[in-house]
Every structure is written in structure tokens, then in C-alpha cells.
Amino acid sequence: MSFAVAADAYDRFMGRYSVPLAPQLAELAGVGAGQRVLDVGCGPGALTTELVARLGADAVAAVDPSEPFVAAARERHPGVDVRRAAAEQLPFEDGAFDGALAQLVVHFMADPVAGLREMARVTREAGVVAACVWDHGGGQGPLSVFWAAAHELEPDVGDESQLPGAREGHLTELFLAAGLHDVEECALSVRVEHSTFEDWWEPYTLGVGPAGGYAAGLDQEKQAQLRERCRELLPAAPFVLTSQAWAARGLV
Ligand SMILES: C[S@@+](CC[C@H](N)C(=O)[O-])C[C@H]1O[C@@H](n2cnc3c(N)ncnc32)[C@H](O)[C@@H]1O
Question: What's the pLDDT tens digit per position in 20-73?
């Protein structure tokens, strides 16, 4: 499981992009005072932090199947009800929340429609389900340079471009298949500055997610080739990466 890693490694690899994405997903979902919401696939808590800031810890619950992430989310967010669970089987009653959100998770679900249907089940009638996935399909995600370089060195490498929700319109299809209505889709965008090439590259060696798992699994020589190709493809440091995610919201 590529998310059975330390929370600190996740923060350095993906948290740097998912933290600035979180306020945008919360805004799209209309998260505001008085609501009770669920963060599905919370990881160490990038979106959880935003939800707690808006609603208070008592009004937020979170789930993730990764044990180290659940432990980190509990430690970082005392008062939040953090449970170890997958989206496809949520340990909550019908209609328990005003909204259920999944940031950068749908593409990792074993059954995305079942996961979204569960999110709808635990959300009250007319409540909101919202999710976002990086635009891996359109080559606009934060890992796109890495996967482009990996492709050059190994043309049939399995990247993340074909994953559910990772191309324009696919989240909408999944939301509709899960029975949500009034579904709207849009693009979210984050800009992250990298002060040096090493600042960008080093977290790829920590084994987080499919990209990190791929990099960490290469022998030293192949990993060095990949690193140097990435260096050539990226702008000279310091550089800013602009990354796009597809986001959808629908009503129960
Ligand atoms: C890219 S991380 C996103 C974490 C966090 N939401 C964020 O924005 O930083 C993907 C997360 O999805 C979790 N995950 C994988 N499969 C899942 C499933 N079936 N249901 C819920 N979460 C899942 C992983 O454990 C991981 O924490």
C-alpha cells in the first residue's frame, strides 16, 4: 500500500500541493458555520485542517485506510472523530453529515462509484458531496513532469493518467453514476514555489503514492537517469509549478 508511509514523508511529497488546494475544495462545497462534515481519505489532514478552521473540531469527522495517516490526523486534530475506514464502507449512519468531501482520493478508491454512493448515503438529503483529483490525464498535475520523464525512459510505465476522475468530465460521470444530482464540475489550481531542484526531487525518493513507489523501486542508476531527465524538463530553480485539479460537487 503506497500510503503506508510516515505522515512527514506525505507532507513533503504531496502535502505541499494539497494544503493550498484544500480551501478551494471547501469553498466549492460551501462548507460554512453550523455544518457537520466528513473528510474522506483524509491522509495526515490537509483538508481536515481547513474544515476544522471553518467549523471547529467537534463538527468534523475523517476517515482513511492508512494506519500511519489516521494516527497523524488524530494527533494533529484533537477533537476530530478520525476513524480507519475506506470510502466504500463508511462507519457512519445515513444522513449523519451536511457534506462529505474527498480531496485527491477518488482515483485511489477500489470502487469509486461505490465510494461516492457511500459518501452520499452518510450525507443528509440536499447535502453536498464534493471531490477533486489532479488533472493527471491532461498532464497538468503536480506529478506530470515526473511521469513524462519516466515515460521517456520506460515507455510502458503505468502512470496515473488513466485513473478515475483524472481527466475532464470523468468526475461528473462518476457522480451521476453514484446518484448525485445538480452536478457541477470545475478546475482548481495551485501555485507552489520550489527553491531548488533538490527541494522538488527529494520527496519522490520517499516512496509515497504511485510516483514515489515507482521512483523508490528503481535501482540507483535508473533513479539517477530519471532525476536528471526531470532536471532538464523543469525550469531553472527557483521555479513555480502551477497544478490543476478537476473538482465536482453534487447534491444528495
Ligand atoms: C493523495 S492522498 C490525499 C490525502 C488528503 N486528502 C490530502 O488532500 O492531502 C490519498 C489518500 O487516499 C487514501 N485512500 C486510498 N484508498 C482509499 C479508499 N478506498 N477510501 C478512502 N481513502 C482512500 C490514502 O490512504 C491517502 O491517504
Answer: 999 999 999 999 999 999 999 999 999 999 999 999 999 999 999 999 999 999
User: Do residues 142 and 148 lie in contact, with contact meaning Cβ atoms separated by under 8 Å?
Assistant: no
Other Cβ atoms closer than 10 A to 182: 11
- Ligand 1, residue 69: give the atom nearest the CA: 27
How much distance in Å is there from the Cα of 221 to the middle of ligand 1?
31
| Cα 198 to ligand 1 centroid, rounded to whole Å | 26
Pocket lining: 200 vs ligand 1, CB cutoff 6 Å: no
Spatial distance between the Cα atoms of 182 and 65, rounded to a whole number of angstroms: 29
Taking the centre of ligand 1 as the mean of its atom positions, its distance from the CA of residue 212, in whole angstroms, is 15
Record the pTM.
0.97
